[in-house]
Structures
1.
Amino acid sequence: MAQEQALAMIETKDLSKYYGSFVAIKDISFSIPRGQIVAFLGPNGAGKTTTMKILSGFLAPSEGKAAIAGLDIATRRLEAARKLGYLPENGPLYDNMTPLELLKFFGEARKLDKAYLNQRLETVVSQCAIQEVLEKPVSKLSRGYRQRVGLAQALLHDPEVLIMDEPTAGLDPNQIREFRTNIVELSRNKTIMISTHILQEAEAVANRILLIHEGRLVFDGGPDELKQNGTIEDKFYSLTNYGRVMPKEEEQV
Ligand code: ATP
């Protein structure tokens, strides 16, 4: 049991990705134990999506390792995929399908037993509140519903780990609130990593923050630590502006 708790559920070690000579991420190392909700913060182009795509097996790293529940993505990708629910930026949605067709399609692709798939369908449809839109083409769904269908897809096989890339982008404040409630509920038995630009979001849901800037990890700690000696906005600014600290108002000329 103690060993089980110590196991890193999401882990990277010296992870780097180059696109030609461009360095997208460099030497990213972190280890996320079971039960944490981690916000992956960073400005545009920092390397969040690249890191998440590597963790979900969609992209191969140039150097270093990534693992889900102790399973190396490079060598045990399928086993790792069984433990992982991944919600990509903009959802994994096929516009010409209905949510029901889409969920069945993913369930079959994941080779879920028919009885188990039916049981899981019932659970995720209710958990993500998508009953009303099950038979509508995905192309006709609002942004909020598309996101809920994406989340239902990511949860279908009841993964232990959930990785979501900017899941609240484009949602209205009520939808964001709903989403946060859902995440807190899910975190009871899942390890969760969410990328976001929104500092308040990170503060509201996460018990740990990883901040990435220009492909490098520049902060790893709790939200309170990030707020020490200022606001979370101040610290974000100083860490993502080449280490320059914002002058205090009275020091400005
Ligand atoms: P955003 O918040 O804007 O989504 P991000 O933090 O998710 O950004 P990434 O999408 O991981 O950042 O991109 C990191 C860097 O790598 C960016 O400069 C991006 O332009 C570059 N990049 C991403 N994919 C490719 C690619 N296929 N070829 C070349 N460069 C790429």
Note: Residues 19, 22, 24, 42, 44-50 surround adenosine-5'-triphosphate (CB under 6 Å).
2.
Amino acid sequence: MRLTRYFLPVLKENPAEAQIVSHRYMLRAGMIKQQAAGIYSWLPLGYRVLRRIEEIVHEEQVRAGHIPLLMPTLQPADLWRESGRYDAYGPEMLRLKDRHEREMLYGPTNEEMITDIFRAHVSSYKDLPLTLYHIQWKFRDEMRPRFGVMRGREFLMKDGYNFDIDRDAALHAYNRHMVSYLRTYERMGLTAIPMRAASGPIGGDDTHEFLVLAQTGESEVFYDDRVTALKLGDRQIDYDDRAQVAEVCREFTTLYARTDETHDPALFDQIPEAHRKVGRGIEVGQIFYFGTKYSAALGATVVTASGEKVPVEMGSHGIGVSRLLGAIIEASHDDRGIIWPEGVTPFPVGIVNLKQGDGAADAACERLYGMLKAQGLEPLYDDRDERAGAKFATMDLIGLPWRLTVGPRGLAAGKVELTCRRSGASEEMSPEAAVDRLTEIYAAHR
Ligand code: ATP
Ligand code: MG
């Protein structure tokens, strides 16, 4: 992508309405535009990251054996009357009527609808286990939408629902989600800690929230700081292996980590003083096991191997896809701008031409551009007729993890400069070596 042909409405001034750094940088980097309280347009740069995050979520869900589908944003009120949640949900639910005076709502979540799909088409244990998920816009008329995409009213969520024959199978689905979520967040360069939480309007007794530690987080958290060092890394997971998946979950949930709702001061005091931490976190996901709460209410039953008709066991599992952009920026930035982890960056590398219009510099940039594209690494080429300082400032603000700087002086020696956004370290090398290096770096993130 050439910057002169792109749409990147960068702001020079700090927007007054932004209270936290992620909101400020998303506005300044031209990623989003507010259209109403808690409702945003996703401008091209923001949309690229959003799509990248969606892609990772999809890949990890499919890897875990879960099946994508797509349910609508608008739902009939009657379905929610069956579960009793139409009255229970309160003013966060956006209710509307169509031209025939039929009551509708903009879905805040989809337990009822997925249960309706299940009861229409599945009736035998032979069709289980089954986990269906979608990535779809939700609406919750939050009392205080704030912090940009962190607490929006319209927001993008991945929500998945497991259907299982018995409690053990449903608990395996719960564990499978935990592991697939850990992998999802790690690929985004995030440490998200599973913490025992309270279930709220979804219901059920087993639930964990995934929290990214950040001072701007809305949740108070209590934890043993050794949890922050746990990593899945590149270990192989067989998602059908109940024992292995349960063991990974145990590893990640044995150390104390809780939100204020489930915090137990007596247990917390048993952590060695040096590891006992109180902090704040951003909730980027939550998993629930709730058994037959919705299946019993909506009559979603299956016939077991012994011929008995039982309500199907269920759980639901959500990832805050749009909130993740804010969470990643809160966790990865400096005073010049965003620092995207390679896994989610909108462009893998930026090319800065120090002397636009100079024959040799222009030609070298074009050549680099072509070589990178051939490797599947679409660069953002700053081909504006601007000062070097302004180009560097833009690249730093939008946070591409790598920058290639091309100028007549380096070219005279056959070199370009490769700079790491995170460390600031620069190295001169031939264009070929730079392309090789970037290809190698990104191979680990595909
Ligand atoms: P919160 O406690 O932050 O209001 P929640 O527990 O009500 O969230 P869930 O029902 O667990 O939310 O939804 C799954 C995920 O969707 C959350 O973990 C969060 O990442 C995201 N999410 C929830 N509400 C919002 C919102 N208003 N804006 C952006 N993302 C949200
Ligand atoms: Mg939650």
Note: The two ends are 20 Å apart (CA to CA).
